[in-house]
Amino acid sequence: MVVPSGQGVKTMGVYSDRVLPRILNAAGGSKRLDPLRRRVCEGLAGDVIEIGFGAGLNVPFYPSAVTSVAAVEPSDVSWKLADVRLRGTNVSILRSGLDGQLLPFADDSFDAALSTWTLCTIPDPLAALGEMRRVLAPGGQLLYCEHGRAPDASVRRWQDRLQPLWGRIAGGCYLGRDIPSLLHTAGFEVPKLHTRYLPGPRPLTFNYWGIAVRSPQ
Ligand SMILES: C[S@@+](CC[C@H](N)C(=O)[O-])C[C@H]1O[C@@H](n2cnc3c(N)ncnc32)[C@H](O)[C@@H]1O
Fold first, then answer.
1. What's the whole-model pTM score?
2. CA of 154 relative to ligand 1 center, distance in Å
3. Which of 27, 101, 136, 152 is deepest in the core (most CB within 10 A)?
4. How far is CA 108 from CA 45, 137, 208, in A?
5. C-alpha to C-alpha distance for 92 and 36, rounded to whole angstroms
6. What is the DSSP letter of 143?
7. Which residue owns the Cα nearest ligand 1 atom 12?
8. Would you give per-residue pLDDT tens digits along the chain (217 residues)?
């Protein structure tokens, strides 16, 4: 399924629709993140669904074992910004959905799912994880890299303090989501979980990444 554009999806005004996607493209495109993106993507193979595809910043790191990618992304501006990366790859990538919370695919459709710095922004992350679990084939892997709830109480207090302002300037991004807990609640086993602060302000940069596997029921 190919979707023409994000028209019809709730829009938030000029800043969210036109400015923020460019900020995310610039910040997320930092070379400092390349090694992490490479590590997260290295296990991808077969037919893949990427939730919150953004400007396609993971595309250069898709391994050759990837056959196709269904890109789910609500922002038309981000999709346009992805064009340069779409033209630089041989992988077949189709914009295939607008909302990770409601995926237009049959059960068991994909070999792998990818989500990088997206679960923070999706309004109902459990719905999105439930949908990823549903469309993954049995044993299929979700490769994830997300920022979230910090382990240090002092940092968590700052996450709470900053949340109202941060949510407004960062497109509804939540600083304190407990990623492992969300994965488990959504029915994933989590055989691989790495955590650490990335460079930058600590309330914004505690990262979780690894592999989650669709658990048998
Ligand atoms: C912080 S950006 C990350 C983009 C990209 N994954 C990366 O690693 O650079 C979050 C992305 O999630 C997208 N997004 C927001 N709500 C979404 C939803 N309900 N379903 C899918 N993607 C969503 C945003 O448009 C944005 O592109």
1. 0.95
2. 28
3. 136
4. 15, 4, 26
5. 23
6. E
7. 52
8. 555 565 434 445 999 999 999 999 999 999 999 999 999 999 999 999 999 999 999 999 999 999 999 999 999 999 999 999 999 999 999 999 999 999 999 999 999 999 999 999 999 999 999 999 999 999 999 999 999 999 999 999 999 999 999 999 999 999 999 999 999 999 999 999 999 999 999 999 999 999 999 887 6
* Dist CA 207 CA 174 (whole Å): 13
Q: Between the CA of residue 61 and those of 39, 118, 184, what are the distances in Å?
A: 9, 17, 27
**154-172 per-residue burial string, b: 16 or more CB within 10 A, e: under 16:** ebbebbeebeeebeeebbe
Q: Is the CB of 141 under 6 A from ligand 1?
A: no
Indicate the burial class of 153 (C-beta count within 10 angstroms; 0-12, 13-18, 19 or more).
exposed
Concatenating the DSSP letter of every residue in 13-32 gives -HIIIIIHHHHHHHHHT-GG
Cβ-proximal residues to 17 (8 Å cutoff; 6+ apart), any chain: 11, 75, 77
Span from the CA of 165 to the centroid of ligand 1 (angstroms):
19
